[in-house]
Amino acid sequence: MVKKLRYYARFIVVCLLLKKVKMVRDLIRDLGKHIDDYTSTYEPEDQLEWSLVLGEIKAFLEADHPITILDHDSSPVIPSHRLSPQNTPPVDKSPSMNLMLQEILIVGNCSDQVKFSELTVDMFRILQTLEREPQEDAINIYDTSPAPLRQPMENGDKPSRRDNPHKYLLYKPSFSQLMVFLASGFKELPPNGALLLYISADGCCPTMKTPEDPGYDHGGVVTNSKRGDSEHVGNKRSLGTRDMHCLYPGDLWPFTRKPLFLVIDSDNSHAFMSLPRYFGQGIVALLSPLEVPPPLRDQQHRGSLFTLFLHSPLWGLCVVTGVLEVPFSVWDRCQTLLDRFMAEASRLITRARNVDSAFIHFFGDDFLRLLILRYVFCNITFRLHRAFKGPQYQSVSVPELPEAEVLEHPNLHRLLWEMASLLDIRSHFYDPGELD
């Protein structure tokens, strides 16, 4: 019986990864019945442990769907957030766009975030974002098909078969484990390959009052919450000894010998703003805000806002404005505006005179282009939102995208205001005259 319960739990994880939502709900109901049968007949003292497992699954599923999209008959619609021909941003490719995402490390260690097994909500969302929709199901981006192994159409041409980038999922890895997997991904990169490191973790604060070394004195992120190994050096920490469980920006410098794309979602993400280009390779970092406005802080356990925007910009827009339900007709019209936003942002970046060449090198890859453009949407949303007033509430990129040519461009602001009007949330954003 125990084997059967464990099988159900493992199978639910698989179904979550495949976005089989209806099947997950059926399995949760069946698992609850089997737990009741098992604990009442064999091991009553195991009731609490299995109930915690069941509650963890339910909380994870609830957190993964922060917004309800209602069809015309009031039935919920579950959108797919994988890459497909419908949501791949267009781009006029140039010879400079020569990098391809090949290796991905997804790291999670948020102490107060919903998780199931060794998968946090943030890890799950970014994993889905970095998968392709199956070609046979790509015409419907609102289904729940498993992750694909095919490339979307470009410029109307028939796609060639291409695998998804190789991924490592690391939940609370030790420093040595993280370095091993980073080195493995680094080693496997072909000449035109890029490595993506995504980290969703609590911050490790600076220990130096007057930082001098940008690689270590600004702190980093905690990849593993174990404290026992460092307790014996507690007295030395006060003299500037650093946390052995913290990943510092300087730890990544050896890996900048090859193209590196970073996404850091943490309350100390800005520690990674100093990324030297010792080896002349492309380096881009997308960094989350350090804080969220007070009205949104009680939602942090359901996943980070920054990762949510990278996963689903419209979900993020709804969450920061308190929208809980959206009619599908409105959602579809907003999606059309979002597609126009992505196309316009893509055009502005590729034509901007002051954009750093690193962005252009990464821009030819569909996944990395999607992340960059969703970051632009996120950044502009926070800029225009009345509650996100202050630098601690703003996302940043390294290198910075040009403000006048991209982030402050009136065409992008206008499209966001149009979406806000459709969702009836216009009052949450500054009016054009207030920004002058």
UniProtKB/TrEMBL annotation:
Region annotation Disordered: where it falls in the sequence: 138-163
Signal sequence coordinates: none
Superkingdom, natural source: Eukaryota
A molecular-function term among this protein's GO annotations: transcription corepressor activity
Record InterPro entries: SCAI
Biological-process GO terms, alphabetical: DNA-templated transcription
Identification of the protein by name: Protein SCAI
Organism this protein belongs to: Darwinula stevensoni
